[in-house]
Design a protein that fits this description.
Helices cover about 55% and strands about 15% of the residues. It is α/β, with parallel strands linked by helices. The chain folds into two domains: about 1-200, Rossmann fold (3-Layer(aba) Sandwich), CATH 3.40.50; about 210-350, N-(1-d-carboxylethyl)-l-norvaline Dehydrogenase, domain 2 (Orthogonal Bundle), CATH 1.10.1040.10. The protein is globular.
Amino acid sequence: MIKKIGDVEENIITRKEFPLKKAKKILKKEVLSILGYGVQGPSQSLNLKDNGFNVIIGQRKNTLSWNKALKDGWIEGKNLFPLEEASEKGTILLYLLSDAGQISFWPKIKKYLTKNKSLYFSHGFGLSFQDKTKIYPPNNIDIFLVAPKGSGTSLRRLFKEGKGINSSYAIYQDYSGKSLDKVLSIGIGIGSGYLFETSFKNEVYSDLVGERGTLMGAIQGIFYAQYQVLRKNGHSPSESFNETVEELTQSLMPLVSENGMDWMYSNCSTTAQRGALDWWKKFRDITLPIFEDLYKKVSSGHEAERIILYNSDKNYRYKLKKELDNIKNSELWKVGDIIRNLRPEKKSDKKF
């Protein structure tokens, strides 16, 4: 389980070392209650169910997520219940409500966290920023997390393809002495490619930095800046989008994922090699102070406070839609929508 990654020894668990058969044996008497059917709830619950675990769903009735659970095959009264009832029935409560939802439901869930139950998270937010979330769990339960390093949609899709997303795991409180077995069993059960150890704070710090940085925030900013410069200098929308987004996402990133950036550099034209090698450090140097500032704002709790304040606004969803519509309606992503529809059909879609 101890593997050297770079210069650091890490606890890393693969499916070979911790097979599904072992996971099912460990959790055979447990009722896994998935609380929340929004982002991670559907994928984790369906993967666990398909792998043979005893799973029930807890969700607020008559919501879009409740209706989605019904559509996915969960049956009201059998394995789909209101949040409070599912909290009572479960022995391991998988707290997969949104961060705002966790804060809102916490006063109600507390009475169901009785001695020897387990509380599971997929994000370290609630317990790492307790002074802001007011989530203070009892000391006579196990508390741990598994955090897939990808979206719920990807977790489910890769599971169905026989693959998996890597996940981190952490133990916050080991009351029973069996938390490690439980957390690894769930991690394998949801279809993780492999699991690497972290802490609740490290998980949420890296997650918030990544979301704001290279995974979503920075990449959108870079896309927008390059596209605008190309358009300003007379390049067509199609050319600008292809050179900014399409080539990266459809051609280069899959190859980087398979082989690494050094391989990509060595397998492109000498002109591209020289340009990439000359310019990557300039981008590093100009963005490094931004990332340092970002990490400070995350670790200080500033970002958490802003998230909670924004999400508690009664007009939150209206404001969110307005922001997303601004992105959707920008020329960059209008062009993207057109170009995606121009991609060649899959072979299976072609009619002969």
